[in-house]
Amino acid sequence: MTGIPASFEIYANLRQLYQGNLSPFSSKGIDRSRIYRFSLSFNDGTNIISIGRIVPTYSPGIGYVDGLMALRTSDGLTFGLVAGFEPGYTQRTFSSNIKKAAVFGSYSTNSILHPSLSISYARSYYGSLLNRESLSGSFRIFPLERLSISALCDLDLRMKSETEYILSPKPALFNANVDYRFPSTIVIGAGLVMWRPSYSFASIRTIPDSLLDLRIRTTPNVNINVWLPYGISIYNNYSPRLVSGQLGKEYLNYSSVNFSNAFNSGFTSRFSVSLNSTEYAKSKIYGLSVQKNIFNLLDASLRYQVNRNTISRTGDLLVYTSYSLDIFTNIFKSITLWGSVERFIGHASDGYIFLAEIRKKF
After folding, report:
1. Average pLDDT over the chain, rounded to whole?
2. 112, 172, 248, 262: which has the highest count of C-beta atoms within 10 A?
3. In Å, how far are 144, 151, 175, 232 from 113, measured between CA atoms?
4. What does the pLDDT look like over 331-351, one tens digit per residue?
5. What is the CB neighbour count within 10 angstroms for residue 186?
6. Interior CA angle at 27 toward 26 and 33, to 5°?
7. CB-count burial class (<10 Å; 0-12, 13-18, 19+) for 58
C-alpha cells in the first residue's frame, strides 16, 4: 500500500490429487489445497501488528495461528505476543476448537561471535482443557569466521499421568550442528538430533500411559559439501540412528551431484541418491532434475524419481515412479507463481497431482 506502512499478504496453493482411472480435473479429485498466510500487517520499522493467518517469523516453532500478533523490535532485540486459534487440520478452513497463545523474543547483533538467540513460551487449549504447554529456544554463534555453532531445543512442560496433565518437563526435540568452511570451498558439518513423539493432551487423554510411545530417538549426522570448477558441487549427508543400543544398523544417507550452468548452456541439473534403512524396510530413491531459465521470464524444470522399497519381513519389492514439470515465475511485481504437474505410477495406485501456488504482497 503506497505511502502507508501496511501490507496484505496471501500465500496459498491449489493442490488436486487424481488417482487410478480418474481423468485430470475430474470432480472426484482429492482436494489437498493449503492456505499458509492470509494477513494484513502494519510495520513502521519498530512496531509490527498482523491480523489473519500468520506464523511468527522470529519464533516459527509456535506454528500457524489464525489471530493477532504484535511485536516490537529495537537494536536487534525483538519481543512480542500472538493469540488466536489453530487452523483446521486441512489448513484450508478456520477452526475455533484449539485456542493458542504465546510470547516470544529474539536477539541478534553483529558484535563479537555474531550471536542470534530466540525463545518462546506457548500454550494451547482444547475448549477449556489445557492441551499443550511448551518452551522453545535456539541460538547460533560464529566463534571463528568460518565456524558456526547452532542449537535448537523444544520442551514439553507437561506430561500425561493417568488422567492428569502434570508439570513434568521433557525434551521433545534437540538439534545441534557445527559447520566449518575451509578456504578451499569445502564445508564439513556434524550434528546431533534427539527427538521423541509429542502429543496434545486431548488426543491421548483416554489412552493408557503404558501404550504411549515416549522413547527418545537419537540420530547423529555428518555432512560434506564440495564446490568444484565448472559449476560442479557434491554433497553427502550420513545419519546413522541409535536404536536399541545399536548405532548404524538403521541409517539415512543422501548424496547429490549438482551441475550449474552446464557448458554455459544455462541448464542446471542434479542427480541424487537417498538410501534409508529401518527395521521395517529398506529404500533406494534415485532422482534426476534439469532446470532452465527461459528469456528471464520463468524457470522450468523437469524431474524424474524412482523409489524402490524392500519390505524387511516379506522381501517384497515396491516400486514408485514419478515424472513432473515445474514452472516458477515472478515476472509480476510482488507476485510469485509456481505451478507443477506430476504423473506417478506406484505399486498400489497411479494418477496425477496438479499444484499451483501463489504468493502476493499488496
Report:
1. 89
2. 172
3. 7, 15, 20, 32
4. 666 788 889 999 889 877 788
5. 14
6. 95
7. buried
Q: Which of 42, 70, 37 is nearest to 54 (CA)?
A: 37
Q: How far apart are CA 46 and CA 148, in angstroms?
A: 29
Mention every residue, 6+ apart, whose C-beta is less than 8 A from residue 21.
Answer: none
How crowded is residue 199: how many other Cβ atoms within 10 Å of its Cβ?
19
Alpha helices in 142-294 (DSSP H): 201-204
Rounded to whole angstroms, the Cα distance separating 92 from 88 reads 7
Grid coordinates belonging to 111: 558484535
3-state secondary structure of 281: strand
Segment 213-232 shows an average pLDDT of 92
Do 336 and 13 touch, CB atoms closer than 8 A? no
8 Å CB contact between 105 and 80: yes
Alpha-carbon dihedral of residues 163, 169, 170, 175, nearest 10 degrees?
140
3-state secondary structure of 60: helix
Question: What value does the CA radius of gyration of the chain take, rounded to a whole number of Å?
Answer: 23
Name every residue whose Cβ is closer than 8 Å to that of residue 122 and which is 6 or more positions away in sequence. 61, 62, 100, 101, 102, 132, 133, 134, 135, 136
Residue found by looking up cell 491421548 in the block: 204
Which residues, at least 6 apart from 35, have a Cβ–Cβ distance to it below 8 Å? 11, 12, 53, 87, 91, 92
Q: How far apart are the first and last CA of the chain?
A: 6
**For cell 499478504, what's the residue?**
9
Determine the Cα–Cα distance for residues 71 and 51; give it in Å rounded to an integer: 12
CA dist 284 and 277 (Å) reads 9
Give the span between the Cα atoms of 208 and 163, in whole angstroms. 9
d(CA 240, CA 220): 6
* 70 within 8 A of 43, measured Cβ to Cβ: no
- CA 179, CA 191: separation in Å to the nearest integer? 9
Buried b (16+ CB within 10 A) or exposed e, 93-124: eeeeebbbbbbbbbbeeeeeeeebbbbbbbbb
In a 10 Å sphere around its CB, with 0-12 CB exposed, 13-18 middle and 19+ buried, how is residue 343 labelled?
middle
Is residue 62 helix, strand or coil?
Answer: helix
Encode pLDDT of 319-334 as tens digits.
999 999 999 887 666 7
Strands 6-19 and 217-228 come out as: unpaired
